[in-house]
Amino acid sequence: MKPEGGMTDRICYVFRLILHLYMLCMTVYLIIVTIVMYYIRVRQSYPGESTWLAKKISALPYGAIFFEEGEYFDCAICLEGIWKGQSVCRLTCNQEDRHVFHADCLRSQVANHNNQYCVLCHQPILVSEPPVPEVTEE
């Protein structure tokens, strides 16, 4: 048994102090990132304007909590989640990535804002007219 105020108590006190400071810093960090993501989601003047910032945030520690591109994660145009059952478009911009967006977001980006480039990799989006059904005469 060690008497009170021994070396073990000092080590525990220092460890507890470091742990509390770490938790305080993590809490402040997560609150700031949450506020930034909320701000860029609300303040986009055109679809996909803040995608570059969301990609930077996703590369930070715990950044994938706030934005992660891909199917069943987040749409990079509106920065909102893609949920099961929603209509999505998959672009094959390059060989290794398949970028996934809400179908309505991608239509809006191309039609209303005349932006025909992928907001993630800046490759051209190939836009084609839907096929016209053939009418057979009988």
Q: Can you walk me through this structure?
A:
The chain has 138 residues and is mainly alpha-helical. The chain has one domain (7-111). It has helices spanning 7-42, 51-59, 103-111; strands at residues 88-91, 99-102. A two-stranded antiparallel sheet has the order 1-2. β1 and β2 form a beta hairpin. It is elongated, with a radius of gyration of 24 Å. The protein starts with 6 loop residues before the first helix and ends in a 27-residue tail after the last helix.
Q: What's the domain count? A: 1
Please tell me what the overall shape is. Answer: elongated
Structural class: mainly alpha
Q: Main β-sheet, in a few words?
A: 2 strands, antiparallel
Beta-strand percent range: 5-15%
The arrangement of helices and strands along the chain is HHEEH
The proportion of residues forming helix, as a percent range, comes to: 25-40%
Please tell me the overall pLDDT. 81
Low-confidence stretches: none
Please list the strands of the largest sheet in the order they lie side by side.
1-2
Report the total helices. Answer: 3
**Could you tell me the number of beta strands?**
2
CA-atom Rg in angstroms = 24 Å
Terminal Cα separation, in Å?
A: 100 Å
